[in-house]
Each structure stands twice: as C-alpha cells, then as structure tokens.
Amino acid sequence: MSSNSKDLSNVPAARTADILRDFAMDRRHFMFGTAAIAAGATLGAWVPSAEAVVGGNLEVMAWEGYTLEQETAGWRKENNLTMRAAIMSNQDDVTAKIVGSNAVRLDLAEYSNGYNAIYNDLKVLTELDVSKIPNYNKDDIYPPFYQGEMWFWDGKQWAMPWVWGLDTIVVNPEMISFEVKSYEDLLRPEFKGKLAFLDNPLTVWPQIAKVTGYGDKFPNLTTDELKDCFVKLQPYRDQTKVFASSNGDVISLFANGEIAACFCVWSAVPLETAKQNVKTVSIYPKEGGAVWADAWFIPKTAENIESAHAFINEALKPDIQASISKTAVAAAVSKKAPALMDAQTKALFDYDNFDEQFKRLKIYGQPPRTSDKYATYDDWLQIWSDFRAGF
Predict the structure, then answer these.
(1) Are 198 and 265 in contact (CB under 8 A)?
(2) pTM higher than 0.85, yes or no?
C-alpha cells in the first residue's frame, strides 16, 4: 500500500469521513475565491436554548454561495429568525462539528452524494419530518431527487436534495477539427498531450467506470474488475498532459491554451473561461455525464429543529431554486423553478426534456469503506494514485 492510500481499519469513527476529503475538490471554490476557507466561522460558543417554533437562532454550515442568506432574508425577518452561517471548505468541516466528544450544535448542514453511507454509519443524522416540508412532494420534485436512495432509506427521509449539477467532457473547439460526441473521440491524435483529468473521485471515478464498461456496476466492482477498468483506461492516460487539482486549475489550463479537453469537469466551466475570452463547450457524450448533488440534513446536535425544517422548505421554493441555480451555476430539483429562470440559467440543463436527458445519468455513491466482496474505497484510491503517477 502506498503512502497515498488510507488504511481505514485503524481509523477512529470520528475520522471516517476523512476518506473522501483529500480528493473531493471543491467545485465552488474557484467561484468565490479563498473566502471559502477564510470565512469558516467557529460554531459552538453560542448555544441558546432550543426553539419550539420557527424563529430564534439557526446555526447553518454550507458551501460558500449556498447558504441562501440573501434568498431567505425576507422570510427570516418575517419569522424573527436569525441565521449564523459558517462556510465549509470540504465535507470534513461539517463532520468535525457533529462527530465525537467535542461535537457542537449545528442545526442544518449539507452533504454531497457519497457521504450518505458514512453519515448513516456515524449515526449523526436526524430523520426529517416531511410533513413540515410541503414543497418536497412527488408532483413538484423531479423523480431522481424524490426519495432517492442517497437521502431516503429504511422508509425514512434523512436528507433533502436541493441543488445538483453535471460534470462532463469540456473541450476547446478551436483547438480541434471535429465534433466530440463520445469519450472515444478523446483518443484521437489531436488530443495527444492536450487532455486533462480532474483529481475528483466523486464524479471522475463513476465516469471512468462508464467509459470502461462498468457503469452499471459502479461503485461495486470486484478487485479484478477494478484492475481491468484501469487497464482499459490506459489509452486516456497516454493522452494526458496533467492532472488538475481543482476546477479553477482546469479553467486556467484552458485559458492558457495548455489543454484542449478535460475528461470530466464541471459543466459550467465554459461560463468561466468565457470571462477570459476563451471559448470552451460542455459535451454531453453518448456515455452520459456524472451527477453531483447536495442535500440539506439536520445533524443530531441540532436544537432549532422546527426552523431547520422550515428553512429546508424555503430552499425548495421555485423562486429560490431559480435564484440559487443562477448564482451557484447549478440545476434545480423543483419542476416549477425553470419557468422562473433566465435563458442562460435554464440552458444549463435541458429541463424541457428532463426525463429523457436523465436516462443517461445516474447519481452514484462511492465504493464501500470495507468489503469482502468488492473493491473498497481504499483500493480505488490506491489504483487512482498509481494511475496518476503513471504506473
């Protein structure tokens, strides 16, 4: 086992969420700068008594730009609700607040797909009372996000998906002479030494599985299947110039003309490269893209549970869904939100043909932490490290 790999057998429960931290590159960070780290307020010093109705104080932790402070300002004023929002720079920031002997009050927080199993194991989730979240209903929420397995299990709702997006191929069309329609096109000679990979297992690993014929099995591949997966991926490694550490790095590489394509990256990258007068386009290939999704959950350390439920309900309102989709360059879970979006925001996803478009997509989890049958997260981490190193 290399030094880059983590042996989870001796890791305390309070640190099990670290396994996704090191490589879960924050798709939002480049949008909002280093404030995402600097603004990480320390929770815990302020511990008022719990509230029985909507109002009082609400302790929230979310990604920079996802706290809904502006969108909910009027609603919070009407309900005499004061919100203190701390910024997470990675998922472990949340975990550190709600796990272990030093756990502190946190009324509401986010987790990304892939963390549901970890948080379930750690027993830090509070079952949601969906009767208090009327905006979450079968008629108004797109099917993949209504009672999906990442947020609903054992007949209970544990988290509420509220915003999502796609990672996919992004190319600079001016550096190539053909239209990219498939991952196979990235193997053409024009991409030699001009391809980048994003070091982000949350979306890149599922996409690798799709490209190598194991999409239907991910995240549960045997160790032999995992090895075969990366043997088949080697031709892409031969095309690769660099492994980028973040979406911001990918944007810089495009802006500097160093790459012509990225294997799997945030589909909103073209909006950012355009600001630097460089044209790139997101490609939705025949293999499909990789979905990321964020969900609100109420930690076990929560006190103002009534207000937390009410806040989640506000987050699902169509106008707020439309607003966050624009400001965070994301996609909505509410069917009523697209009608309220401007043209550019609505164009981020083909809402008019949602069901057809989503047939090629799947919201994946992550490989198991431990297993006697399947390759574990640690196994994936090892082979991914070797792949990046060129072994």
Answers:
(1) yes
(2) no
